[in-house]
């Protein structure tokens, strides 16, 4: 067997975190090889943000992340901030805009971000080996030996940046978790996050007329709430507010929808009843909500008759149905459509300044494989950039 090619750093995964880390390590003069089984680098970047890549969030901070240890992300996010990535995008001349809630997107295409990273990697002297399957990883006296279908590589530092399980069709695997377990690191249980929620068939049938209806709503789960778009689909609920809450929701939990969170439905219906009691409740509600939603709620809560027939108690019931609609999703659409994987490599086993495994010197975990998961809105890429950058300073 031929001797393994000696390098300083092997990065497993040419995604957002892996490319960032490899660039930084390369700029420090380290000899870096990035291995990926995919045919192209940064595939999730390319399809992200509807093809425009929501590459960061201007306000990214630890409160925007879920983790068994909520303080873990603080150090990396402080050392490499959203502003640092924006400066990189600006230096490259990529035009961008803020869409909403601090979410920054390319004006043109997400490909510009992938090209920036692969060009930077090349300039930093890093080598990208695509379509390469890793067949084994062994601990060596002064590092690791990584066996692949294209020969073996020996390295001092091994950086695992293989992402989560979301969208297996795009090459996502649980490989990073296997490596962590193999080296004795603990895992936090994984589950799909930022994912549409499904409803039971009986409820779905009743809500069938709403498929396609969207509102600017508020969704709550306990004390956590998000006010963003909410969409009824033929499978259940989707839209940014639902994706956000899905990361907090657990099977068996209830969520509460407010479909017109800034409208006092009770007060408005009372006014309308006083002004024109002969109106049908559905017609009155349709001035406050999308028509199909107004119809469904009025049919369910008001029955036949007009506004004048409805007592204050009945109006309150309608108000509750609109802004305090409690329901129990039956599940989620799973990894097939989830944007991220919650859980992962337990942060207790990692140094928050460097992402190095505490018990295995030279082994690093960065990006989504780590138990740090961001909200929807550019936070996940910022975690990939920040964790990749800090590891790249030392690996
Ligand atoms: P990432 O998944 O990017 O990269 C992992 C790499 O490892 C891949 O290239 C993969 O091929 C490789 N790999 C996996 N297993 C391997 C193995 N066994 N051997 C070799 N290589 C292997 N976030 C955000 O902030 N803004 C956004 O706009 C979006 N939009 C978005 C849309 C969609 C449809 C999805 C699915 C996700 C998003 N996200 C997002 C989330 C974001 O894409 C995600 O959090 C980051 O890509 C994570 O970066 P990583 O580098 O950790 O993993």
TrEMBL record:
It comes from the Bacteria. It holds the Pfam family HI0933_like_1st. It comes from Ancylobacter polymorphus. Keywords: FAD, Flavoprotein. This is Rossmann fold flavoprotein. InterPro entries: BaiN-like (IPR004792), BaiN-like_dom_sf (IPR023166), FAD/NAD-bd_sf (IPR036188), RsdA/BaiN/AoA(So)-like_dom (IPR055178), RsdA/BaiN/AoA(So)_Rossmann (IPR057661). Its cofactor is FAD. Residues 8-393 form the RsdA/BaiN/AoA(So)-like Rossmann fold-like domain. Residues 191-340 form the RsdA/BaiN/AoA(So)-like insert domain.
């Amino acid at each position: 067997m031929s001797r393994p090619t000696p390098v300083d750093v092997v990065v497993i995964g040419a995604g957002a975190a892996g490319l960032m880390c490899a660039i930084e390590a390369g700029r420090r003069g380290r000899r870096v090889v990035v291995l990926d089984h995919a045919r192209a680098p940064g595939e999730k970047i390319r399809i992200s943000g509807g093809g425009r890549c929501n590459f960061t969030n201007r306000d990214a901070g630890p409160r925007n992340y879920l983790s068994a240890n909520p303080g873990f992300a603080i150090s990396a996010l402080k050392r490499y901030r959203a502003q640092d990535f924006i400066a990189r995008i600006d230096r490259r001349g990529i035009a961008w805009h803020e869409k909403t809630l601090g979410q920054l997107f390319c004006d043109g295409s997400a490909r510009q971000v992938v090209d920036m990273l692969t060009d930077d990697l090349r300039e930093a002297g890093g080598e990208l080996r695509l379509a390469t399957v890793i067949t084994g990883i062994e601990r060596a006296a002064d590092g690791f030996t990584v066996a692949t279908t294209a020969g073996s590589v020996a390295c001092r530092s091994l950086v695992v940046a293989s992402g989560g399980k979301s969208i297996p069709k795009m090459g996502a695997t649980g490989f990073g978790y296997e490596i962590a377990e193999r080296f004795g690191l603990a895992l936090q249980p994984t589950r799909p996050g930022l994912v549409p929620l499904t409803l039971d068939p009986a409820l779905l049938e009743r809500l069938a007329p709403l498929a396609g209806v969207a509102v600017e709503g508020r969704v709550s789960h306990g004390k956590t709430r998000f006010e963003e778009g909410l969409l009824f689909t033929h499978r259940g609920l989707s839209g940014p507010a639902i994706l956000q809450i899905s990361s907090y929701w657990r099977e068996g939990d209830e969520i509460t929808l407010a479909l017109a969170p800034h409208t006092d439905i009770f007060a408005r219906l009372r006014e309308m009843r006083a002004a024109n009691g002969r109106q049908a409740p559905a017609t009155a509600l349709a001035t406050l909500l999308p028509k199909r939603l107004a119809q469904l709620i009025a049919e369910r809560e008001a029955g036949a008759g007009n506004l004048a027939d409805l007592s204050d108690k009945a109006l309150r019931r309608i108000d509750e149905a609109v802004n305090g609609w409690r329901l129990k999703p039956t599940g989620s659409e799973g990894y097939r459509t989830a944007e991220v994987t919650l859980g992962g490599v337990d942060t207790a086993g990692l140094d928050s300044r460097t992402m190095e495994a505490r018990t295995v010197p030279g082994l690093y975990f960065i990006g989504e494989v780590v138990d740090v998961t961001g909200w929807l809105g550019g936070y996940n890429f910022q975690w990939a950039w920040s964790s990749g950058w800090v590891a790249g300073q030392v690996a």
